[in-house]
Amino acid sequence: MVVQFDREKHHRRSVRLPGYNYTQVGAYFVTICTVGKECLLGKIVDMKVQPNEASRIVRSVWEGLPRHYAGMDIDEFVVMPNHVHGILTLLDGGGIVGAGFKPAPTVKRYGLPEIVRGFKTFSSRQINQSHATTGTSLWQRNYYEHIVRDDDESNRIRRYIEDNPLMWAMDRENPQAKTATISESWQV
Fold first, then answer.
1. Which of 118, 55, 43 is nearest to 84 (CA)?
2. Which of 30, 33, 70, 78 lies 20 to 30 Å from 160, alpha-carbon distance?
């Protein structure tokens, strides 16, 4: 049987902002979902995250990202049963070296897509190793990102990430939600 290529069905549409340089200094809010939005990363009990081995690996990989990618830092982060939310910050390449005010050596700047790809790859690989499986990706192909525009928005997003476990019963990512009515409360 020959499968015909259907551009509408098989074309992956980018959710990225057209023409935007995702290596630019700034903060980025990301949401990354598990493949099929399966609840593989622990559970929520009494509105608190109950981690499992996979979610502990995911958190460890997230926290290790600044060691792998120079010029970036992490901010608020939560592992939910079938997705993660976090803020990544791409930093200015300059800095102070030693006791003087000299520019730091130029380092390769990694963009948001490369960092997210690395996160997905590293975490999937470690989870596969812990379960003695191979070639299985934990994550869906794409991810959601939002360019954080100012401190007020950053603070709203931090609160949203912190409060996400409290809202799980109504979360649109929750397959058991009675009514998926939670909105992106960080957006005003």
1. 55
2. 70
145: nearest Cα among 29, 13, 37: 29
The domain segmentation of the chain, as residue ranges, is 22-170
58 band by pLDDT with thresholds 50, 70 and 90: very high
Q: At 42, give phi and psi (nearest 5°).
A: 85, -160
Supply φ then ψ for residue 44, to 5 degrees.
Answer: -105, 125
Q: Residue 162: pLDDT above 50?
A: yes
What does the DSSP 8-state code read for residue 185? T
For residues 28 and 145, the answer to whether their CB atoms sit within 8 Å is: yes
Which pLDDT score, from 0 to 100, does residue 60 have?
A: 97
Q: 22-170 maps to which CATH number? A: 3.30.70.1290
Q: Structure tokens of 175? A: 């397959």
- In a 13 Å sphere around the CA of 150, the CA atoms on its Cβ side amount to 3
End-to-end Cα separation, the chain, in angstroms:
50
- Taking the CA atoms of 17, 22, 25 and 28 in sequence, report the sign of the dihedral they define: positive
